[in-house]
Amino acid sequence: MTVLEVLQSTTAYFKKREIESPRLNAEHLLAHSLGVKRIDLYLEFERQLTEAELAPLRDVVRRRGQSEPLQHLLGTVEFCGRLFICDKRALIPRPETEELAEMLIVECAMRNADLRVVDVGTGSGVLALTLAAQFPEAEVHAIDISDEALALARENAAQLKLSERVRFARSNLLEQVDGSFDVIVANLPYVASTERATLSREVLRDPEAALFGGPNGDELIRALIVPAPGHLRPGGVLALEIGIGQAEGLSAFLAEQGYKNISSRHDFARVTRFLFATYG
What we know:
The structure is a single chain. By secondary structure, this protein is of the alpha/beta class. The chain has 2 domains: about 5-65; about 75-280, Rossmann fold. The protein contains 10 helices and 11 strands. Helix 2 (about 20-35) crosses helix 3 (about 50-65) and helix 5 runs parallel beside helix 6.
C-alpha cells in the first residue's frame, strides 16, 4: 500500500469507530510510526510501504480505534509551543488550559521580580513548567497528591531542562505547603461523579482522581478556596480552571470567603471556564 492508501483506509476505519478528526489522527499515527513529520507525508503519497513499516502502525490504529487517546499513543502532547511527555499517569492537557497559561503569563508579567507561584494539582506539570520557562527569575512550586503525576512532571522538567527551576512536592491541596505566593493556580478535577455516564470512553482513560471532583464536581475547588488566602501575598491572585455551570456558585463562594476583584473569563468556545480573584 502507498502512503495515501494507508491514510485513506485508516481514516475510513476511524470514521466507522466514530473517532473525532479521523484524518488528522491517521496522519499523526502514520507519521509517528514512520518517524517523520506529518507534513512530510504529503510529499510521499505514492511511496510504497513495506510490511515492516505497516506492522507497528496496525497496532496503534487498532488501539486508537478502541478509544486509547492519541496523545498516549504518540507519547507526547504540545502545550504552549513545547512538547511534553504524556501518558496515563496524569490528565491529558486540554486546549483550555493553554488559554489559562496565556492569561497567567500576562498576570505574572505585571508582578514584581521576586515572583512566587504555586501550581496546585500540577499533573504533568504543563502550567508550572510553562511559567518557569517564561519567567526565569520566578520561584515556581508544583504540587500534586499523586506520586505518579509528580513523577511524570519531573520527567517533563528534566526533558525541558527546567528541573532546577521548579520545586516539586506531594501535597493534598495546600496542606503541606509553606510560605505565601503572588499566584496560586489550580486546574483541579471538576467533573461531577454523577456525570460519569456522559463521558466518552476516551476521556475515561484519564486517571479518575484527575477527573472527578465529587458529587457536584466543585468540591475540591471549594476546598482550595478556603485555605488559599493564608498562602497569598497581599494582592495575590487565585486563578482557577472550572467546569461548565460552576462559575456563579464559585464566584459567590469566593465573595463569602472575602476575596475581591472576582472575575470570570471565557474560553475560545465562549464557555465560562476560568475564575480569577485577589485577596488582601
